[in-house]
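Let us work through a complete example step by step.
Step 1: write down the sequence.
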Amino acid sequence: MTRRHRRLLFLGWVWIAALALAAPLHALQQELPQFNTLSVPQREPVALPSITAPSGQPETLLEVPSLKLRNQPGFEQVTVTVTDSSGRYITDLKEDDFRIFEDGQQRPVGYFRIDRSAPVSIGIVVDCSSSMVTKLRQAREAIKTLVEDLDPRDDIFLESFARQAERVQPFTFDHERLIDHLKFVHSVPGASPLDGTSLYDALYLGLFETRHGKRDKRALLVLTDGMDNFGTTSRAQVIETARAMKVLIYTIGIGDTAVNNEEGFLRRIFRADDDKVDMRALTELADETGARAFNLRRVGSGEELSRDCAAISDELRQQYTLAYISPDPMRLSYRSLRVDVPKRPDLSVRVRKGVAIIPPATR
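Step 2: predict the structure and record it as tokens.
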């Protein structure tokens, strides 16, 4: 037998062996849960949310800005939280109590709503990097409590992330289904140089996922014990996108606060992130979008974590929704935003820091 024949015979046996291995691997793949691994989207149109009710619920029961108002160029919707000096929510204010200022200029209030019974589209984004392995049981229990406390008219999605983000459950009104899918939120122990936390990628993807929510009020809750040390998205991109999409970003950080997060690239890649959480970044994300940041030094039994999740669920029902028409909507720009309650100077008003005006032609 010539060398050429021996080579062909060897390649034939290799091909047969490969086919024999492929069949059981394919069968195993079919049995595994089919997660949808997300990739960072390119710039896409910032779409207004659809205002539809879940099956069996008349849309007339939902109080939303009129279609005529929403279709006006320059329409801006704002979520406002008002508290007193003790941190108690103030929910008995009227429309004429509020003043909206864009770039320092007062704008008429075109719509007013007390959100006590307003449904919300919520995304839950959970860190599953290796440092979370001892904390995910408590995190799952806290999320379960949060979901059980939500209004049945709220739609929710679930996303997990480490080096990349995975959509575990798309938007659904079936809260029990989302709770069941919490079993797929898990971490692999044993940190390595290949481990990573793509916090900003995960939030960026979560923001784009909120476009599929059915409610005009939208929020993200992110739970992490580390800092962004992987991925391609910047914090500025996340904040800019949240402004444009009008999404509240609530954050819960577990662990001691990092003293310095301005580290070099190589140190960020190879540093284990199991002992520090970047609360400066988490606080900025919350402040810029009008939400709140929570910091737990230790997860413990999970009781405090559940309490923070319950506080977020409660706050979403203690807010106001205002809307106004921004002038010159064809000018691409970022404009500062402030909401005052002049008759009650003793009150604190929390709102996102600004609005991103995106002309339709550039979306």
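Step 3: interpret the result. The chain has three domains: 1-32, 63-116+318-362, 119-315.
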